[in-house]
Design goal:
The structure is a single chain. The chain has helices spanning 37-49, 51-72, 120-186, 192-226, 252-258, 260-281, 326-392, 398-432, 440-445; strands at 77-87, 102-115, 286-297, 309-318. It folds into two domains: 30-74 and 118-160 and 207-284 and 326-445, Up-down Bundle (Outer membrane efflux proteins (OEP)), CATH 1.20.1600; 86-115 and 285-318, Outer membrane efflux proteins (OEP) (Single Sheet). The protein is elongated. The model is unreliable at 20-25 and 437-450 (pLDDT under 50). By secondary structure, it is an alpha+beta fold. A four-stranded antiparallel sheet has the order 1-2-3-4, with no helix packed on it.
């Protein structure tokens, strides 16, 4: 009963709006492109120990257990029963009974089997298969999201490490300025104003250094939680940022196969289609066969005598006569649930393309921003060097030296932050493309969830 679900292809463009890349995107351990051993170690730990990912895996195991239960509904149910009673019945009943208490012993095997005429059980199995595949895709979505968050936090931490080095170098340079100005002040070659300005610049950089270290500590603690460790015992030593890998976008048609969240909504759409048939079958006659066989006696010594045997075979047909509109309302509910799942699937497809376009746009514009920022940083460094030389020859004031050094520091930090944003866009693109996702419905059917 009910419609059979058919997966309809979603319309996709020939290429992405930002770029027309048509090379296949990476699969497998995508993080290896960064060439950072510590990042790979953290991602492997997150896959094994992240609480949210493990919770999603437990939901997948639950869905598979429910699927096994649904499949068992195709088989007969066989139960055994042993009964021993001691009782006293009323002598005022309609049948002659013993006046004294007596014992009864009974041992039976009971069989029941529903004949699936209308496919209710078979559709329930198909529905749960789809839901199990959706749970597998949900697990991969949670895993991908967790790994992407680990990668983002780790890369942000490494660029803060780079900023810390920049600020420490700036503080060292400004402390040298202080000593130089102090010596010139003592020699009467400058005023106390220059010394105060030099002192102010040093302390400003030192205050910013502590703010950057605080942000680094927060990221370190966030990474500890993501990999399932206690932040109090978790440490990451300082190191420079890793390289930025090149991630081709692939063709748009490949995106829908790679995105686990899209696969999950499609599988829930299939489950909603099966629910229509299940709902209709619930209001049709249900045919079942029950049988029972065993022995009963008043004494245990007679329980296994030939004349103590008993059996009964009872085919039954249950069917609704008057539903007062319940059948039609249930059908409408199931159909509405299908269309809700259909729109959820369409929304997931649209969001998938939006995510890729945003990531590609970010990479394109950030590459251009990096080119400009590198030129700006180089110019600021050269200007600072030349103004320093002019100051040493008496052609510039110390205020110009401080201003040039402040601008150079800002440009160097801006370059590091732009490089960090570019790496974040790379992770965003990897996540938007589905990361290491393949055809997980096939993987789910193999029974390997871990």
């Amino acid at each position: 009963m009910g419609p059979d679900y058919e997966k309809k292809p979603s319309p996709v463009p020939a290429s992405y709006k930002v770029t027309g890349l048509n090379t296949p995107p990476p699969s497998g351990s995508w993080w290896e492109g960064f060439g950072d051993r510590k990042l790979s170690q953290l991602l492997n730990q997150a896959e094994k120990a992240n609480p949210q990912a493990r919770a999603a895996l437990a939901r997948l195991d639950q869905a598979r257990a429910i699927l096994d239960l649904r499949r068992s509904d195709l088989l007969p149910s066989l139960t055994g029963r042993a009964l021993a009673t001691r009782q006293q019945d009323s002598t005022r009943d309609i049948f002659p009974i013993p006046s004294d208490p007596y014992s009864r012993f009974r041992s039976t095997l009971n069989l029941s089997y529903e004949i699936d005429f209308w496919g209710r059980v078979r559709r329930s199995i198909k529905q749960q298969e789809a839901l199990s595949q959706a749970a597998a895709a949900d697990y991969m979505t949670a895993l991908l999201s967790t790994k992407a968050e680990v990668a983002r936090d780790y890369l942000a931490l490494r660029h803060l490490d780079e900023e810390i080095v920049i600020l420490e170098n700036a503080i060292g340079l400004r402390e040298k300025n202080e000593h130089l100005i102090k010596s010139r002040l003592e020699a009467g070659d400058t005023t106390s104003i220059d010394h105060a300005r030099a002192r102010s610049q040093t302390e400003t950089a030192r205050a910013e250094l502590f703010r950057v270290k605080q942000r680094r500590a927060e990221l370190e603690n966030a990474l500890a939680v993501l990999v399932g460790q206690n932040p109090s015992t978790f440490r990451i030593e300082r190191a420079p940022p890793p390289r930025t890998p090149v991630v081709p976008a692939g063709v748009p048609a490949d995106l829908l196969r790679r995105r686990p969240d899209v696969a999950a909504t499609e599988r829930r759409l299939a489950a909603a289609a099966e629910q229509i048939g299940i709902t209709l079958a619930n209001y049709l006659p249900r045919v079942a066969l029950t049988a029972s066989g065993g022995a009963a006696a008043l004494n245990t010594s007679d329980l296994f005598q030939r004349n103590s045997r008993l059996w009964v075979v009872s085919p039954t047909v249950d069917f609704p006569l008057v539903t007062f509109g319940r059948k039609e309302r249930a059908r409408k509910q199931a159909v509405a649930g299908y269309f809700e799942a259909l729109e959820n699937h369409r929304d997931s497809v649209l969001r998938a393309f939006r995510d890729v376009e945003n990531a590609l746009s970010g990479i394109t514009n950030l590459d251009r921003a990096l080119t400009a920022q590198r030129l700006s940083t180089a110019s600021a460094s050269e200007a600072s060097r030349l103004i320093r030389l002019r100051y040493e020859t008496g052609l510039s004031s110390f205020f110009e030296v401080l201003d040039a050094q402040r601008e150079e520091l800002q440009e160097r930090r801006a370059l590091s932050q732009t490089e960090a944003a570019r790496q974040q866009a790379t992770v965003q693109l990897i996540q938007a493309l589905g990361g290491e996702w393949h055809d997980h419905s096939r993987r789910q059917n193999s029974g390997d969830s871990r």
